[in-house]
Amino acid sequence: RFHTTTGSDVFSKIIRGEIPSTKRYEDDFCIAFDDLSPAAPVHVLIIPKLHTRGISNLFGSGAEDEVESALPLVTEPINDAEVVGKLFAAAARVAEAIGIDKTGYRLVINNGGDAGQTVFHLHLHLLGGRELT
Ligand code: 5GP
Question: Which of 3, 13, 72, 116 has a 20 to 30 A CA-CA distance from 50?
Answer without folding.
Answer: 116
